[in-house]
Specification:
12 helices, Lipid A biosynthesis lauroyl acyltransferase, two-stranded antiparallel ribbon, seven-stranded mixed sheet, 9 strands, alpha/beta, transferase, about 15% strand
Length: about 300
């Protein structure tokens, strides 16, 4: 792999991140995961200004929450993100735990049935809990899940982050024309791919998410329809004791890309409302959706 090129500030930031991760990995597993979550909540969140974004998003889509409920989510959201990062960089220990994670719902059997037919499948999720728990659990059951991912702005961090993510299942497909082409070949050959559905995609159609219009890509539904493979909602849900369960749902009913994508949105929304502190509220999820054209609104029925 060629050495990444980037700004000096990116290199400095990555040196700090690498040093932090290396220091944390000297600690026992449970201690490092807990400490990473607390560091993200008490240090990184205030410094980054992410608390303001979380409060703004909650006020937009969950205005009924009390002040105390909002502040609990403001604390738990960065904790979830910090724990997930440390779990990503503790692959051996985390994968060993994933092998024992219960997989609830019909998703695993649906995937195995598709695999037995020589077909692949799409597992769709969100920035919720830790989707690596789901990838690790499926991997332990003989179904490696490749991933379509978005390149990080910091190229130095991106290089080792993608390498760490690949330990939970391969191949990895970078979002873009080349990555999409490789991913389609993988699906056509009977492979499985996980897609994180809740990213805002510029110029995507607008449809409701958490009761507000949000630009939402139709690509996962379009691929499922084109290649006649199941589209299965899957979530790695963190339990109160820090362990995980993998919650799967029946494959999205085949219809139109718009209807299927709206069903995916509704599925993720239900998980967020049940466990609001486990979703990444730092996203600018609803930005620009108010500028949707009439064509956008017609496609997404927003």
């Amino acid at each position: 792999m060629d050495a990444p090129q980037g700004k000096f500030s990116h290199r400095v930031s990555d040196v700090f991140i690498r040093g932090f991760l290396a220091t944390m990995r000297t600690l026992p597993y449970e201690q490092r995961i807990t400490l990473a979550g607390k560091f993200a909540t008490k240090v990184l969140a205030p410094l980054s200004g992410s608390r303001r974004r979380i409060r703004e998003n909650l006020a937009l889509v969950m205005p009924e929450l009390s002040h105390d409920a909002v502040e609990a989510i403001v604390r738990e959201t960065p904790e979830t993100m910090g724990r997930m990062l440390m779990e990503t960089y503790s692959p051996d220990e985390f994968l060993a735990r994933c092998a024992a994670v219960p997989i609830l719902g019909p998703g695993l059997e649906i995937a195995k049935a598709s695999q037995a037919e020589g077909k692949g499948g799409l597992l769709v999720t969100g920035h919720f809990g830790n989707y690596l728990a789901a990838r690790g659990a499926f991997l332990a059951n003989g179904i490696p899940i490749g991933v379509l991912y978005k390149r990080m702005n910091n190229p130095f961090f991106n290089a080792h982050y993608v390498e760490a993510m690949a330990k939970f299942g391969e191949p990895m497909f970078e979002r873009g024309r080349r990555g999409m082409s490789s991913m389609i070949k993988h699906l056509r050959s009977g492979g499985f791919v996980g897609i994180v559905q809740d990213q805002r995609i510029n110029n995507a159609p607008v449809m409701p998410f958490m009761g507000k219009p949000a630009r939402t890509a139709l690509s996962s539904a379009e691929l499922a329809l084109k290649y006649d493979i199941p589209l299965i909602p899957v979530y790695g849900v963190r339990e109160p004791d820090g362990s995980y369960k993998v919650v799967t749902e029946p494959a999205i009913v085949r219809s139109t890309p718009e209807e299927m994508t709206q069903a995916v949105n509704a599925s993720l929304e239900a998980q967020i409302r049940a466990h609001p502190g486990q979703w990444m509220w730092t996203h600018n999820r609803w930005r620009d959706a108010g500028n949707a054209t009439s064509e956008d609104r017609a496609r997404g029925k927003a």
